[in-house]
Amino acid sequence: MALAKMSVAEVEQFLRGEFPQAFSGDDITIESADGQTCLLRQRYSERMLRPGGTVSGPTLMALADFAMYVVLLSAIGPIGLAVTTNLNINFLRKGQPGQDVLAEARLLKLGKRLAVGEVNLLSGTSPDPIAHVTSTYSIPNV
């Protein structure tokens, strides 16, 4: 795959301007993005929890989808209309309350019209994923 077409700062600027509803607060930070991988951190909040004290599925799915969007933008540049066409998630273990959630995304294949990637979601400093995601994005003709 090619080198990054957008830096972390450029991706953040693009998201704040084009997608502020998802990237306007300070709960998610992009720690790295290089055109092949990215690392996002969602700061812990009680809003993440579902009854029973575990991190909710919708929280994990949204973070994974956002991580795929970030790694894709870093690879292809500011193409805002790239959209998710498929997302599959396997919940592996309970996400612990009080811990940030990390999303490690990686592009597996980047084509002209489709991109396929995977995301491992981690709770705090544990090396064991709490969920594994595969996702496909459609890339519009530009």
TrEMBL record:
The chain crosses the membrane at residues 66-89. One of its GO terms (cellular component) is cytosol. InterPro entries: HotDog_dom_sf (IPR029069), PAAI_dom (IPR003736), Thioestr_dom (IPR006683). Residues 52-124 form the Thioesterase domain. GO terms for molecular function: 1,4-dihydroxy-2-naphthoyl-CoA thioesterase activity. Pfam families: 4HBT. Keywords: Hydrolase, Membrane, Transmembrane, Transmembrane helix. PANTHER family: 1,4-DIHYDROXY-2-NAPHTHOYL-COA THIOESTERASE 1 (PTHR43240), BLL4964 PROTEIN (PTHR43240:SF10). This is PaaI family thioesterase. It comes from Bradyrhizobium niftali.
